[in-house]
């Protein structure tokens, strides 16, 4: 299993896209992080777009970003963040199975929250990753997610076609028709709040217009 990702085309594309996010996306990012506290694991940090939105009740963010070029931008963003952020250039799978014990200070365990923003669509095995995220949360800890999810009807057919053809190749292995919320519940989380938001007009024939935003809890 590779510990990093080298995708120069997607890195260039995402760097431009993340620098020009709509106010709607920024609002959802801010909402997804509101009220967090303690030690947070952020999965798939990208260019560090979330960092500016962390509340000062967060004591530490460990941010994992496997694409080496995106991680360089994330490290720059971490330096300007309002809370302490450490960027790890590795896949979440490698981070979870690393040499540090799960309960070691600064290791993979004992997180108060996990943040996933537009990342579970791109991991190789989302169900396995969500189960691992469950394991590194303390009892009562939260998973905050803002993700592309499977739509229904005609858009679902569009998503399946996109996923089977060029979309994952262009967009860093992004798969648009994933049942992420079902995977979260199946991993043992209790979904405390969840809703769906359209970030683009419904009439646009794009597979990523609908987002899921929610808060799931590891039972105490």
TrEMBL record:
Name of the protein: Phosphatidylethanolamine N-methyltransferase
InterPro entries named in the record: SAM-dependent_MTases_sf (IPR029063), Thiol_S-MT (IPR052356)
Source domain of life: Bacteria
GO molecular function: methyltransferase activity
Gene3D superfamilies named in the record: Vaccinia Virus protein VP39
PANTHER family: METHYLTRANSFERASE LIKE 7A, METHYLTRANSFERASE LIKE 7B
GO biological process: methylation
Keywords: Methyltransferase, Transferase
């Amino acid at each position: 299993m590779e510990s990093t990702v080298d995708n120069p085309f997607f890195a260039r594309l995402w760097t431009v896209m993340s620098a020009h996010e709509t106010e709607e996306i920024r609002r959802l990012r801010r909402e997804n992080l509101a009220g967090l506290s303690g030690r947070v694991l952020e999965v798939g940090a990208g260019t560090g777009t979330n960092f500016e939105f962390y509340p000062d009740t967060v004591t530490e963010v460990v941010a994992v970003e496997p694409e080496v070029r995106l991680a360089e931008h994330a490290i720059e963003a971490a330096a300007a963040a309002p809370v302490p952020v450490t960027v790890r250039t590795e896949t979440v799978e490698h981070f979870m199975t690393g040499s540090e014990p799960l309960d070691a200070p600064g290791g993979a365990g004992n997180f108060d929250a996990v943040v996933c923003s537009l990342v579970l669509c791109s991991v190789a095995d989302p169900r396995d990753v969500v189960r691992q995220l469950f394991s590194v949360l303390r009892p009562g800890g939260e998973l905050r997610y803002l993700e592309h999810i499977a739509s229904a009807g005609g858009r679902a057919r569009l998503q399946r076609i996109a996923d089977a053809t060029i979309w994952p190749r262009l967009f860093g292995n992004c798969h648009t028709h994933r049942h992420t919320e079902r995977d979260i519940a199946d991993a043992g989380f209790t979904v405390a709040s969840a809703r769906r938001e359209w970030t683009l007009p419904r009439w646009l024939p794009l597979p990523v217009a609908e987002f899921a935003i929610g808060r799931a809890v590891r039972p105490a």
